[in-house]
Structure formats: structure tokens, C-alpha cells
């Protein structure tokens, strides 16, 4: 390979390296917007033919028109093209999720087209496409189409403007109307070319195309009502007047870029704080569950065993006294031993129930469905009919399942104690990544005054489960009417 051939082969690589180096410098200065990943182009025959036809049409029209429309002020034209490049490069991002950006470069683009003709359309089209390419890293194929798109749109705007105004000195109203119609022609051609690409690749619904076009129309109307002033100022005072109008627009966009970056930084900080809060909440939930299991284990291995031993000793002592038959003067003592043994066994039973409520072994061992069935069985013992509906394929994190169980347990405990319900239904389903628990009963219901009275008496169970649900990022809604039962709805994220 000769040295000239080697240099030619290395030229694209060096150009790409310089582009990346420039982007790296701007990024370190915290000026260039961070690019979002763009899908790879699916090269189809229809798409390649469409883009190639657009490029050939643009090249042919400009080769034919530029012969009769020469440009003498190349300095102003180059400066205007550079301004369009910078405005496209530093477009204002409209959000972190939606991939869209805003820039008033179309205003300058139209003014240059009206002032310098086809060469102006080509120069600003190149500047716009290059700015978008550096900002979004959209690749050579998309950039080539963007050049044709912006150039043809500018050429259409110039053609409409010149057709209406001519080369004379029409009234101001005619100039403004021409500028407005030219802006609409620019939007129509630009949108039509984009729709062609989108139609080939994605086949979007017609309503979405119309909606996108209508959303851009107010900007085009504003640009059309203002672009003629650039022509007027250039004709009156030259480049100084032209850029006297362009510079404030650039400064406004610069302010909006900085403002958008600060909003983005604030949103990122809030997201980090929310993530940290969720992590701390998860740690708190895990610690709470671990502490519940420890307390339940200590109670079972300590107090319950001691009570069991005490009950056994009391029963054995009472039996021994009965066997000896020596009850003279000890009848009261025997009765005390037997009643104490019975009360000790009752205390053991209550304590075991409390241990299950604190850390239900069924929830860890068999899952949420079995744990809720166990709670419902206790309600059925009081004569209430129950119904449970849980999807078999629903998967919840352990802490989320524990939260659902705690809420259901507290609500069902209140139903058993106060509602006097004949029927209770419990359902759990997933809606939009939210676990929705709904508990409905046909009991006597309650009023806000009843809630306030119970709170004053020291009953804080309902408030506690509301706070727990909100801390987990969910909501708890309680709807009740006297004589019409109660409906409790818990919504909590599945993840």
C-alpha cells in the first residue's frame, strides 16, 4: 500500500477521532448534553432508496439554483451557519425519559434562507445536521438524511417566500404573510420527509403523525412571524443588524440549557435520595422482621417453656395430693393448684398465638396464601364465612409479602373483634406492577367519629398499618359506612 493510499484510508478514522475528542472536551466542561442510546439503523432497500432519492433531489436542485443566486457575503453566511450548528448542538432537552429536544435554530435557518437563497438553505442545513450528529451520535446515515431534510425544507421555505414577495419592495403585510407561509412550507416538507422514514421503519398510526405535526405548528407560526425581521435588519444594516437579532435568541437558549441541566441534576439528586431512602426502608423492614423472629424465638424457647414446666409441676402436685387423699385443710390449696395450672396453660396458648402473630412460621415456610388461610380460620371459628382469592402465579418479595400479611392480619383482627360480619372476602391481584389487596366485609361498619374515639382510647392499629403502607411507597384506603360494611384496599409496589 502506498503512502497516499494509507493516508486516504486513515482519514476517516482521524476525522472520527477528532470528533470524539471534541465531544469529550465539551462533555468534561459539562456543556454537551449526555447522548442517549439510539437504535441501530435497519438498512432496507426501501429506506436506502428513500434517503438516496432525498439526497439526489437536494443535490440536483442546489446545483441548478445556485448558478443564478450567487452569494457575496460569505462571512455572514458562515457565521450564521456556525450559529445554527451551535444551537443544534446545545439543544434543550425536554426531559429525562422522553427523547426530545428544543432549539430555535429554525428561526435563524429561515432568516438565512430568505436572505441568501439556496446557498443559505444548504449552509444552515449542513450546520443543523452536523450539530445534531455531534449531540446525538446518530451516525452517518441519519446525518446524511438530515442534511437533505433540512436543505430541502429550507429550499421550500425560500421558494414560497420569493414567490410571494418577488424582488421588489412589497408592503409589510405581504412580507409578514410570505414569511409565515414560508415557515409553514418548511414545516410541511420537513415533516413529510420524516414521516416517509418513519412510515418505512415503523408504520405509525395516522393520528400520531397528525398529533406530532400539530404540536410543532405553534413554533413554526412564531418563527414565520419573526424570520422576516432578520431579512429586514440585514438589508438595512448588514451583518451587524442580522446578528443583533440572533444573539439574544442564542443567549436565551443558553440560559434554557443551563436551566435544563440544573433541573436534570436536581432530578438525579432526588432519584438518588429516593433510592437511598428505599434502601434504608428495606434495611429497616429487614431489621424489623429479624427482630420479630428473635423475639418469637426467645419467647418460645424461654417463657413458653417455663410456663409449660410450671403447668406440668402444678398439675403433678395436684394429682399427687389427690392420690394421697389427704385433703384435710388442703381443699383450698388443691383448687388453687388446679386453677393455676389451667390459667398457666391458657397463658401458654395466648402466648403461642402472639408468637404466631409476631412471626408467623406459615408465612416463611408455606407462603402468603397459607398464612392468610390460617388467619381466616380463626375468624371462621367465630361463625363468619370467609373467601380468599390469590393468583397462583403472583410472586412477591419477602418484605412485600410480609407487609401484605401484616395489613391483612390487622384488618381481619378488627373485623373479628368489632365488625360482627357474616361474610369476609380477601383478594390479591397485580395491576400495573402494584400488588392490590382488598378486604371486604358486610359488618356494621363505622364512622370517622368511631375512629377518633378508638384512637383516643389508645387503639393505634389502623394508623400503624397506614404508616407502614406509606413508608413502603404504597397507599391504604379505608371506606366504611354504618350498616354497610367496610372495604380496605392496600396498594403497594411489587418491587
What is the compact description of this entry?
The chain has 495 residues and is of the alpha+beta class. It is built from 15 helices and seven strands.
Summarize model confidence as the mean pLDDT: 80
Q: Class of the largest domain in CATH?
A: Mainly Alpha
Distance between the first and last residues' Cα:
60 Å
Strand content: 5-15%
Strand order of the largest sheet: 3-4-5-7-6
Largest sheet: number of strands, sense, barrel closure: 5 strands, mixed
CATH architecture of the largest domain: Orthogonal Bundle
Q: Tally the helices: what do you get?
A: 15
The coarse overall form would be rod-shaped
SSE arrangement, N to C: HHHEEHHHHHHHHHEHEEHHEE
CATH topology of the largest domain: Arp2/3 complex 21 kDa subunit ARPC3
Low-pLDDT parts are 1-12
Quaternary structure state of the chains depicted: single chain
Q: Which structural class should the secondary elements be placed in?
A: alpha+beta
Instruction: Kindly state the number of beta strands.
Output: 7
Considering DSSP H and I runs of 4 or more, what fraction of the residues is helical? over 70%
Total domains, how many? 4
| Radius of gyration, CA atoms, in whole angstroms | 39 Å
